[in-house]
């Protein structure tokens, strides 16, 4: 028995692979390396250099490695860029998911954990997002993730597919120094890169109606996220009933200002971030409840903000030194 992890050479995917293997569950990585790194894949883990747009490659991977389930993380993940590249986003995220499901059906693989996104909610008008909060995505990326959830639900009605989707906001930290966030758009890499280059980090907006004037968001540790994927897979393997979607939320959130203070404390680099204008469409607060996931997936925030920053900074410095 093994699970195929699409996008398993990426920041999140590589942590999911390690979480599977720590539980004694075999993992196989499928990644086209458009944003992943082969160095992130454990040396003993089977690696297939291929795209989720290539159904034949997926079928070969399933056959050759005895795949019984899939964790689907591969896709184009940049919400802002997706507005400029909608066709590319839909091809990767919608056509790719369709191709993957077709290959799974062809080879009799009947369980999947889908890495969705809280981008499906857009700008909610509630303080605490639940799975029932209306879905109003505001980018092709968010729309493509919602369509991915629909595809799984419709395929399940027409076949024996068992599935669940995990929605989450901002993923940070590192569970191992060998794997770090390489995104050119995420907050932690942008802040660390600025500090390492001797520049002052910049944040967007300091006049929001929040306690310190900066946006409040869910920030979850990547190792906690990876563990939730493993629990979901194990429950699907056991034939347990799961909800179609779960929010992996903190329930309270932290502000960008709090993160900046934690970064200064952890790095020992004193700075006051430059405050630029607000970005269009950025709500003051988006925080999700994780109650359903806590009930069914043993979801909880196992790391403090300081631990998130410490682990991310350790991995980033290790990468700079290598």
UniProtKB/TrEMBL annotation:
Q: What is its EC number?
A: 5.1.3.2
One function term, GO molecular function aspect: UDP-glucose 4-epimerase activity
Gene Ontology biological process: galactose catabolic process via UDP-galactose, Leloir pathway
**Residue span(s) of domain NAD-dependent epimerase/dehydratase:** 3-249
- Key word Flavoprotein present in the record? no
Supply the enzyme class, top level: isomerase
Cite the InterPro entries for this sequence.
Epimerase_deHydtase (IPR001509), NAD(P)-bd_dom_sf (IPR036291), UDP_G4E (IPR005886)
Tell me the domain of life: Bacteria
Catalyses: UDP-alpha-D-glucose = UDP-alpha-D-galactose
Which cofactor(s) does the record list? NAD(+)
Pathway note: Carbohydrate metabolism; galactose metabolism
Keywords, in A-Z order: Carbohydrate metabolism, Isomerase, NAD
Q: Which family does it belong to?
A: Belongs to the NAD(P)-dependent epimerase/dehydratase family.
Q: What is this protein called?
A: UDP-glucose 4-epimerase
Source species, please?
Answer: Agromyces fucosus
Q: Which gene encodes it?
A: galE
């Amino acid at each position: 028995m093994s699970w195929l992890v699409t996008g398993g050479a990426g920041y999140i995917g590589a942590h999911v692979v390690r979480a599977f293997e720590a539980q004694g569950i075999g993992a196989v990585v499928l990644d086209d390396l458009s944003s992943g790194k082969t160095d992130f894949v454990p040396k003993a883990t089977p690696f297939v250099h291929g795209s989720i747009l290539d159904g034949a490659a997926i079928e070969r991977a399933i056959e050759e490695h005895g795949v019984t389930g899939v964790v689907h993380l591969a896709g184009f993940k940049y919400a802002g860029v997706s507005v400029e590249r909608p066709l590319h986003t839909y091809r990767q995220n919608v056509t790719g998911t369709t191709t993957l499901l077709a290959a799974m059906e062809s080879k009799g693989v009947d369980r999947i954990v889908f890495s969705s996104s809280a981008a499906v909610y857009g700008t909610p008008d509630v303080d605490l997002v639940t799975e029932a909060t209306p879905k109003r995505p505001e980018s092709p990326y968010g729309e493509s993730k919602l369509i991915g959830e629909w595809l799984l639900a419709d395929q399940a009605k027409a076949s024996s597919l068992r599935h669940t989707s995990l929605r989450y906001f901002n993923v940070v930290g590192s569970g191992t120094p060998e794997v770090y966030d390489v995104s050119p758009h995420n907050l932690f890499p942008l802040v660390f890169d600025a500090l390492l280059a001797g520049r002052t980090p910049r944040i967007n907006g300091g006049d929001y109606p929040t306690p310190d004037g900066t946006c409040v968001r869910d920030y979850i540790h990547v190792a906690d996220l990876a563990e939730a994927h493993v629990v979901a897979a194990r429950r699907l393997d056991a034939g347990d009933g799961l909800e179609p979607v779960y929010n992996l939320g903190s329930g309270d959130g932290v502000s960008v200002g709090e993160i900046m203070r934690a970064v200064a404390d952890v790095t020992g680099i004193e700075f006051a971030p430059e405050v630029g204008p607000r970005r269009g469409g950025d709500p003051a607060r988006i925080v999700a409840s994780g109650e359903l996931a806590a009930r069914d997936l043993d979801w909880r925030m196992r790391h403090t903000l300081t631990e998130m920053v410490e682990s991310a900074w350790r991995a980033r410095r290790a990468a700079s030194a290598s």
